[in-house]
Amino acid sequence: MTSNSTAKTLVKTFLRTPHSLKTKFQAKQLLAQFLQTQPYSPSSTSILISVYSNFNLLHPSLFLFNSLNSPPLLAWKSIIKCYANSGHFLNSLTCFVQMRSFGIYPDPNMFPFVLKACVFLKNLRLGESIHGCVIRLGLDFDLFTGNALLNMYAKFQSLQPNGGHKVFAFNVFDGMPKCDELCGTSAQEKGASIIQLDRMTKVLEMMPKRDVVSWNTVIAGNAQNGMYEEALRMVREMGNANMKPDSFTLSSVLPIFAEYVDVIKGKEIHGYAIRHWFDSDCYIASSLIDMYANCARIEDSCSVFNLLSKRDDISWNSIIAACVQNGVFDEGLKLFRQMLTAEVKPRDVTFSSIMPACAYLTTLHLGKQLHGYIIRGGFNDNMFIASSLVDMYAKCGNIKAARWIFNQMEHHDMVSWTAIIMGHAGLTEEAWRYFNSMSRNHGIKPGLEHYAAMADLLGRAGKLEEAYEFIGSMHTASTGSIWSTLLSACRVHKNLELAEKVANEIYKVDPENVGAYVLMSNMYAAARRWKDAAKMRIFMKKKGIRKEPACSWIEVKNRVHTFISGDKSHPLYDRIFEALKDLLEQIEREGYIPDTNEDFHDVDEEQKKYIIFSHSERLALAFGIISTPAGTTIRIAKNIRVCVDCHTAIKLISKVVQREIIVRDNSRFHHFKDGKCSCRDYW
DNA sequence: ATAGGGTTAG
Predict the structure, then answer these.
(1) Chain B bases closer than 7 angstroms to a protein Cβ
(2) Which of A61, A105, A347, A647 is the most buried (most CB within 10 A)?
(3) Is A683 a domain residue?
(4) A261 and A209 assigned to the same domain
(5) How confident is the model at residue A550 (pLDDT cuts 50, 70, 90)?
(6) What is the pLDDT of residues A123-157, one digit of tens each?
């Protein structure tokens, strides 16, 4: 009896001042005391439920809630909140509907939770009926409810165009919910989706009071739906209403300037962020990293990242993606390792960000390690990750593994289809099978990238006429770039007649295509049709088209060395020249005969030999050989395709110097080892 | 005696 009365006093004190409870532990202790004070009233039970729901303790809340016969408003509110905050959105809504069926009227501060649940469940119809409920109860003047409505219409705009999401048929005024899934979005709903932003604006206009959150919500809503100018207009309007942009505003605005590739405006925002102490904010920092990366300012991305004192998974992911997108693959991999060391768990997107780096560097062992990590982390059923794995294995030359993962996948996206078709170098039959089964058995309409991949494949396999007809029969309009792949194939396989036909197609769809003119001029030269070659060049000059100089670069001891064809300006040029001569002698002993047909200069054979001899990739290669220890793998990048002769030469060089040489040109990588190349001469 | 609680970004 005495202990009961002590408990009663204690409980009474706490229920009078529920905020004095500071920890979950204290809250749990209170429950033990409370249970001794039988009988307890519904109102004190409700207060206790609200205490638990504030700590997000779902189970004690439910335990108490279920003990009530007719729960008062506070109990309903608390339980709806607790369900929503712990991710049980459907339960939260079910509770709301039940409460209505008990004839209890909701109060304003419950709507933000319920509307949030509708957004998470992607249920626009229910959201709309709740909006109706808000209006009927005359609660649409509440600031928080208004903000939640703004958010809902903003989110539904960005959800709708995709269509096909699950909609729960669900009526607030029916009593219990029906969870029939209506798959797909009707035409009527799609039509309605176009006006969601208008609805958002209408809600905003009706709001008697707006705060920073209201503005941030509509700005983000417009920005995320591609309405960039409208978003920026609203930022100005917000300023006119005497409200200052905060970190939320900036992180919605920065992606717009990233999209516009407007580094000037982006930097202005950066300056504003620094002046207002927002630059250490994780959200701002990752938007800045993305923005700078999109503007090809990777150094600025890095400095933002380096100055960040607290980094979360998204800041790490942003900087890794920034490096990989800008071709700084080694740095991307280094950061990925640092991320793991810092015990930050990678997200699914992290893997699809980092995998292209493995694919590019053709570091199969690292790709395999990542694959292991993916399996251990349970990410292997993620379509994006699986696609990037297919691509990585295909690019690293392990077609077997690529195909195995591809076959394991339940659904295939564009990336995996492209990767698998591109990956089967030379296996045209197989690629045809995949290409055909794509539309026939999987209902995926081939896109431009698949046509391009197929055309490229056929061309590289020397099936030029087949490729020509294939491109001509495309369902989508052909582009200059797709014909260009075939034109390069014509050059490799020395089919001038077809090349002229292909070039004419390019002139039709893409008259500004520099590559086509250059290639044709080169092919005429190779066929010793000097007049035609000159005609081509005069034509280019007239049109003001200039050839992009061939350029290769190599990283040695953290410095990038760039070489242009025939360039003698490198400080070590003399030694490079000696090395080149030495290499030439060695590969000639292996049977190398210079293939000067590809050179378009009208000079004698001996001179031609030297022009080819100083192609940019060879300068870079010779420099790499003399400035790195024996056996080191050499990685070279080139802005345009490697020529046939250099390809042959580098194969032999890889044999005589016993090194792996990786050359990445603008269309693919070449992995040279022991006199062979991974492309198996299909390029 | 009575209130409070909730909304936005990468």
Answers:
(1) 2-10
(2) A61
(3) no
(4) no
(5) confident
(6) 989 999 999 999 998 888 899 999 999 999 999 87
Query: Per residue in A298-331, is it b (16+ CB within 10 Å) or e — as a string?
Result: bebbbebbeebeebebbbbbbbbbbbbbbebbeb
Given phi > 0 = left and psi -120 to 50 = alpha, else beta, which region is A509? alpha
Residue nearest to nucleotide B9 (CA to C1'): A248
pLDDT (mean) for A444-455: 76
Q: Are residues A91 and A188 in the same domain?
A: yes
Residues 559-588 of A with CB under 7 A from strand B: none
**A657 CA to B10 C1' distance (Å):** 48
> pLDDT class for A531, splitting at 50, 70, 90?
confident
Do residue A402 and residue A462 come from a single domain?
Answer: no
Answer yes or no: is pLDDT of A611 > 80. Answer: no
Among A503, A525, A547, which residue terminates a domain?
A547
Classify residue A631: in a domain, yes or no: yes
Contact criterion met (CB below 8 Å) for A355 and A321: no
For residue A352, pLDDT beyond 70: yes
Range of the domain at A417: 346-423
- State how far the Cα of A375 lies from the Cα of A361, in Å rounded to an integer: 22
Residue A80 to residue A53: CA distance in whole angstroms: 9
Which two three-digit tokens encode residue A273? 């962020």
Distance, in Å, from the CA atom of A658 to the CA atom of A656, rounded to the nearest integer, reads 6
The pLDDT value given to residue A175: 31
Q: Which residue has the higher pLDDT, A27 or A311?
A: A311
Range of weakest confidence among A41-50, A62-71, A598-607: A598-607
Q: Which pLDDT score is estimated for A180?
A: 32
Residues A268 and A304 in one domain: yes
Q: At what angle do helices A111-120 and A73-85 cross, to 10 degrees?
A: 30
Whether the beta carbon of A71 falls within 7 A of nucleic chain B: the reply is no
Same domain membership, residue A206 and residue A61 = yes
**Statement to judge: residues A598 and A621 lie in one domain:** yes
Q: Please provide the average confidence, as pLDDT, over all residues in chain A.
A: 82
Position A120 in a domain? yes
A35, two tokens: 């249970």
Nearest to A384 by CA among A374, A396, A399, A373: A374
Question: Between the CA of residue A280 and those of A270, A276, A294, A582, A605, what are the distances in Å?
Answer: 11, 10, 20, 55, 63
A147 within 8 A of A113, measured Cβ to Cβ: no
Query: Do A594 and A536 belong together in one domain?
Result: no
